[in-house]
Design a protein that fits this description.
61 residues, mainly alpha, 2 helices, 90% helix
Length: 61
């Protein structure tokens, strides 16, 4: 029975933010999109920086 309670709690925790995003409860949907866009930009910047460092180190050799 405890496994079912764990699964139920997990589903509630997983689906609550999704539901809040869909109905845009108090602007959480917009805030989530802004956060994702900002995170994507940082990932792209870091990937570019890593590729530059790898390129420079391969030129050294």
């Amino acid at each position: 029975m405890n496994k079912f309670v764990g699964i139920l709690v997990g589903l509630v925790v997983l689906l609550s933010p999704v539901y809040a995003w869909i109905i845009n409860f108090k602007g959480f949907g917009d805030a989530a999109l802004v956060f994702l866009k900002g995170g994507l930009m940082w990932v792209m910047l870091l990937a570019g920086l890593v590729s530059l460092v790898v390129g420079f180190t391969s030129l050294k050799e």
